C-alpha cells in the first residue's frame, strides 16, 4: 500500500514531534544540553531544514589528500592499525568551530590502504558518549567483526577487528557506523572513511589517481551539525553543503591531455549523485568490487547511489587554462516531503594547469576476468515496501509512528530475529523487488554479489554490493558466502535503515 502525500502531510502536521528531535540529538541522555530537542509542531517544522549558517566553507582550495592510517606492523603482508572514535572540533565555517564525531580526529576518517591477501587487525576505541560499531562496507570479512548492531562497542570500550583479505580482491571500499537506530545520526556527525585495496595486477597502476569521498552536511546558525527533521527521516537526509574529501567545491589541477583514475565514493546518507564532467571523456572501469570485465566508454553521466563506489578513467582537455566542473545533475528519486534537485550541483573544479603534457594512455579492451557463479542452489524473493504511518502509535511521537513504515518482506527489523537462512558454499539467487514509489539502494553485507539482471534484462558481469532499485523495479543477483554467521541486508538510505528497512540472513556451516 502506497502512502499518499496529502494524508501524510496532514498526519505530520498534527503529530507530536519532540520525541523524534530528541532522538536526533547526539547528546540526549548524556548530561549535555538538549537545545536540538525542543518541541516542534506544525508544517514549518516538518519541511524546513534547521537554520543555515551565515557563511559557507571556503571554495577553490586544492583537493586534499586524506591522511593514511599508519601501519604499526613490520611484518610483510600484515596490517595493524588503531582508530580512536571521539568528538573533535574543526574550523569548517567562519566563526565557531564545528563539533564532529571523528575517526582519528579528522573531518573524515583516514584512508586505510591495503594489499590483496593482507592479514588485517584494527583496534577500535570508542570515546563517544554512546555506543557505536564499525561496518567494513563491501569487504568479505567474518560477520563477527563486521559491526553488527548486537556487537556494539560501549562508550569507553574497545574492539579488535581482525580479518584476512582474499588474494584476488581489489577496489574501493569504506567503513562507517552501523548501530541500530543511531547510524544516520552518527554518519551525519561525520563518521566515515575510505578503504583502497590494491592488487599486483592492477591494469591502471602508474596512472595519476585521485580519491573523491563525497558527503553532504547541514549546519545550524551556530555552525553545528543540525538535527534531523521529520522530513529527513521520511525522505532521507540531504545536507545543503556538499563536500569532497571534507572540502567545499575544491580544485583539482591536472596536466594537459592527462588521463586520471578517479575513485569516487558516495558517502552521503541519502543523496543520489548523477555525476557529469562536461568537456572530459569518462570511462567506467570499476564498480563496488573492483575492475569491470570490459570498460564502459563514452559516458556523459553516471548515477552513484548512497554507499556505492565507482572507478573512472577521465581524459582531460589539452588546452592549458581550461576549467571544467564536476557536477551532480538533477535526479528525482521520489521524495515525499522535500523538493527534488532541479539544477546541476557543482562538486569540484578541474583546472588544466601549465604542466608538461601527459603521455597518451592506451585503454585495455579486457580489464578483469569475472567468472559467473553458476547455477543457484537456492532462490529467494526479497521485497522492499512502504506503508502508511501507524497512527495507533501517535502517543509515542513521530518516531514511533514511522517505525513500521519502511519494510522488507512486510516486516520491520528485529535485531534478535533471523529472516532468512542459508548454508556456507551455496550459490544463492535473489530477486529483489522495490514495491514502493521511492528509489531504494539495496545493500548486502559480507562481500560482493554478481548483478545478473535488472527488470529481467541481463547485465554485463560485475561485482557489486550496493545497487539502486527504482520504484516497481527488480534486480537479480547471485552470491556465495564462504563463512558462517549473520549478515544484514537493507536499504542504504540510512534513515530508512534506522527505521527498520533491514533484515538478517543467517549462514550456517
Automatic annotation (TrEMBL):
Chief subcellular location: membrane
One Gene Ontology cellular component: cell outer membrane
Transmembrane segment boundaries: none
Listed GO MF terms: copper ion binding; oxidoreductase activity
PROSITE patterns hit by this protein: MULTICOPPER_OXIDASE2 (PS00080)
InterPro entries according to UniProt: Cu-oxidase-like_N, Cu-oxidase_2nd, Cu-oxidase_C, Cu-oxidase_fam, Cu_oxidase_Cu_BS, Cupredoxin
Presence of keyword Oxidoreductase: yes
Topological category with respect to the lipid bilayer: Lipid-anchor
Signal peptide feature range: 1-24
Subcellular location(s) per record: Cell outer membrane
Tagged with keyword Oxidoreductase: yes
Domain Plastocyanin-like as annotated: residue spans: 88-201, 232-322, 392-507
Highest rank taxon of the organism: Bacteria
Gene3D superfamilies: Cupredoxins - blue copper proteins
Record's keyword terms, sorted: Metal-binding, Oxidoreductase, Signal
Protein name: Copper oxidase
UniProt source species: Microvirgula aerodenitrificans
Amino acid at each position: 500500500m502506497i502512502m499518499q502525500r496529502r494524508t501524510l502531510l496532514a498526519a505530520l502536521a498534527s503529530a507530536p514531534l519532540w520525541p523524534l528531535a530528541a532522538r536526533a540529538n547526539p547528546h540526549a541522555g548524556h548530561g549535555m544540553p538538549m537545545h536540538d530537542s525542543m518541541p516542534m509542531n506544525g508544517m514549518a517544522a516538518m519541511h524546513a531544514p534547521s537554520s543555515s549558517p551565515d557563511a559557507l566553507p571556503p571554495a577553490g582550495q586544492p583537493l586534499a589528500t586524506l591522511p593514511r592510517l599508519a601501519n604499526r606492523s613490520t611484518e610483510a603482508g600484515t596490517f595493524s592499525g588503531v582508530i580512536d572514535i571521539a568528538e573533535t572540533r574543526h574550523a569548517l565555517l567562519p566563526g565557531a568551530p564545528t563539533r564532529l564525531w571523528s575517526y582519528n580526529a579528522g573531518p573524515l576518517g583516514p584512508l586505510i590502504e591495503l594489499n590483496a591477501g593482507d592479514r588485517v587487525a584494527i583496534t577500535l576505541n570508542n570515546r563517544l558518549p554512546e555506543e557505536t560499531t564499525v561496518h567494513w562496507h563491501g569487504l568479505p570479512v567474518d560477520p563477527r567483526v563486521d559491526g553488527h548492531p548486537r556487537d556494539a562497542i560501549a562508550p569507553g570500550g574497545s574492539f579488535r577487528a581482525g580479518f584476512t583479505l582474499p588474494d584476488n580482491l581489489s577496489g574501493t571500499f569504506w567503513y562507517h557506523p552501523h548501530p541500530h537506530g543511531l547510524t544516520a545520526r552518527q554518519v551525519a556527525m561525520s563518521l566515515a572513511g575510505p578503504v583502497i585495496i590494491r592488487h599486483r595486477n592492477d591494469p591502471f597502476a602508474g596512472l595519476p589517481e585521485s580519491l573523491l569521498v563525497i558527503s553532504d552536511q547541514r549546519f545550524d546558525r551556530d555552525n553545528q551539525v543540525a538535527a534531523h527533521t521529520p522530513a529527513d527521516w521520511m525522505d532521507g537526509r540531504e545536507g545543503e553543503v556538499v563536500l569532497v574529501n571534507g572540502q567545499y567545491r575544491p580544485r583539482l589541477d591536472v596536466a594537459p591531455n592527462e588521463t586520471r583514475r578517479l575513485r569516487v565514493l558516495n558517502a552521503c546518507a541519502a543523496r543520489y549523485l548523477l555525476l557529469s564532467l562536461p568537456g572530459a571523456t569518462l570511462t567506467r572501469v570499476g564498480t563496488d568490487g573492483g575492475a569491470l570485465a570490459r570498460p564502459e566508454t563514452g559516458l556523459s553521466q553516471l548515477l552513484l547511489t548512497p554507499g556505492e563506489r565507482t572507478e573512472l578513467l577521465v581524459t582531460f582537455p589539452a588546452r592549458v587554462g581550461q576549467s571544467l566542473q564536476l557536477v551532480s545533475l538533477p535526479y528525482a528519486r521520489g521524495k515525499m516531503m522535500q523538493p527534488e534537485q532541479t539544477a546541476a550541483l557543482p562538486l569540484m573544479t578541474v583546472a588544466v594547469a601549465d604542466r608538461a603534457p601527459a603521455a597518451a594512455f592506451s585503454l585495455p579492451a579486457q580489464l578483469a576476468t569475472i567468472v559467473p557463479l553458476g547455477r543457484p542452489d537456492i532462490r529467494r524473493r526479497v521485497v522492499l515496501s512502504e506503508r502508511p504511518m501507524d497512527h495507533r502509535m501517535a502517543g509515542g511521537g513521530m518516531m514511533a509512528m514511522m517505525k513500521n513504515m519502511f519494510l522488507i518482506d512486510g516486516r520491520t527489523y528485529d535485531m534478535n530475529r533471523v529472516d532468512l537462512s542459508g548454508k556456507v558454499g551455496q550459490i544463492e539467487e535473489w530477486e529483489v523487488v522495490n514495491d514502493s514509489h521511492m528509489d531504494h539502494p539495496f545493500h548486502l553485507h559480507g562481500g560482493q554479489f554478481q548483478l545478473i539482471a535488472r527488470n529481467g534484462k541481463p547485465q554485463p558481469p560485475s561485482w557489486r554490493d550496493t545497487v539502486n532499485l527504482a520504484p516497481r523495479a527488480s534486480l537479480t543477483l547471485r552470491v556465495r558466502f564462504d563463512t558462517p554467521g549473520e549478515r544484514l541486508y537493507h536499504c542504504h538510505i540510512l534513515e530508512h535503515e534506522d527505521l527498520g528497512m533491514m533484515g538478517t540472513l543467517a549462514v550456517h556451516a
